[in-house]
């Protein structure tokens, strides 16, 4: 029996469409890389405006495949934010490259600072991974310009930002490739699952091939009699998505615009309730721009106030979290590029993530805010 929260950090919007999707696959008697995956890829490509969408088993695999497809390997450096989930750093190490961490712009705008990225470019730098923190796109115009100037490839880690756009263009088409996650607590949830989007034919082709053992034809094509022989042209992997997860993804994709609007509504209500809380602030508050509102993060005046609030939430059985500790401070990633990340570390000491999910109620938002007002007063 899981611990019973009065308000969980996130919750699924699952119902009849998801049940029907799973049953449709069970009745079809075809479990992996078939019509559901194909349809999910087409529908996702249409939603993001990307030329290609390639379904993968999770976003970490997607990041690894994008790094490989864009040529990262032994001896290369991959620039990425220090305020991030550890997946980018792990994927970088997996391909034999070294992550180099850059600081955020500010506590108000905790996405990666383009000037910080530029300061850390060396002769070994190959790729920049930009992460749209909390659902808010990074300063992609500056980052893309830097990448053009320095001849670097650009990957969007769009795991927080499915459905968001930047200057009128959807995330997913703002770099050479983008990765999305459908992990259980993301804006679209299938359990495990991910998607790579790209406008580049060469990247799409390579990601497709590496996803399936480096083979030149797919099981599904052979099943349909389209091909019977294959070659293996690359050291490949098995990073495929199966039909059950793809079917769930299609149901969740239909709900995404409405659910992101509901997230925006709850985020706005939080902001109204918390704006007079002395010493506390909300990142991105009042800044123009779109967001997928993946996370509701608040910043305490200091670490002690944050920890006191976290304890008060636990007492009230309201689930909170921290997004994220500074990646460069983890044992596995401490090293050369751990210096000069003061803003990320300050952010990590003061940040607290509050519950935010489409199916929450105004009463739940009010209850969370009451706990914070009591703890923060
Ligand atoms: C969730 C997440 C990932 C990893 O996604 P998986 O599908 O679980 O591998 C990577 N980056 C960020 C920013 C994430 O939030």
Task: Throw out a few tags for this protein.
11 strands, single chain, 377 residues, 7-stranded mixed sheet, binds pyridoxal-5'-phosphate, alpha/beta
Structure characterization notes:
The strands form three sheets. The chain has a seven-stranded mixed beta sheet with strand order 1-9-8-5-4-2-3, with helices on both faces. The chain has a two-stranded antiparallel sheet with strand order 6-7. Strands 10-11 form a two-stranded antiparallel ribbon. Strand 4 (125-131), helix 6 and strand 5 form a beta-alpha-beta unit. The protein has 377 residues and is an alpha/beta fold. Helix 1 runs antiparallel to helix 9. It is built from twelve helices and eleven strands. It is 39% helix and 13% strand. The protein is globular and about 65 Å long. It has helices at residues 16-28, 35-48, 59-69, 87-94, 114-119, 140-150, 201-211, 219-223, 243-274, 303-315, 342-350, 362-376, and strands at residues 52-56, 77-81, 98-102, 125-131, 153-157, 165-166, 169-170, 177-181, 194-198, 296-299, 351-354. The chain starts with 15 loop residues before the first helix and ends with a helix. The mean pLDDT is 95. The structure holds pyridoxal-5'-phosphate. Pyridoxal-5'-phosphate (PLP) is lined by residues 58-60, 84-85, 87, 131, 157, 159-160, 181, 183, 194.
- Large-scale geometry: globular
Kindly state the percentage of residues in helix: 25-40%
Strand content: 5-15%
How far apart the termini lie comes to 35 Å
> Could you tell me the number of beta strands?
11
Q: What oligomeric state do the depicted chains represent?
A: single chain
Average pLDDT over all residues: 95
Order of helices and strands: HHEHEHEHEHEEEEEHHHEHHEH
Task: Give the helix/strand class.
Answer: alpha/beta
Q: Which blocks of ≥5 consecutive residues have pLDDT under 50?
A: none
Q: Output the number of helix runs.
A: 12
The largest sheet, given as strand count, sense and whether it forms a barrel, is: 7 strands, mixed
Order of neighbouring strands in the sheet with most strands: 1-9-8-5-4-2-3
CA gyration radius, whole angstroms: 21 Å
Q: Which cofactor or ligand species appear?
A: pyridoxal-5'-phosphate
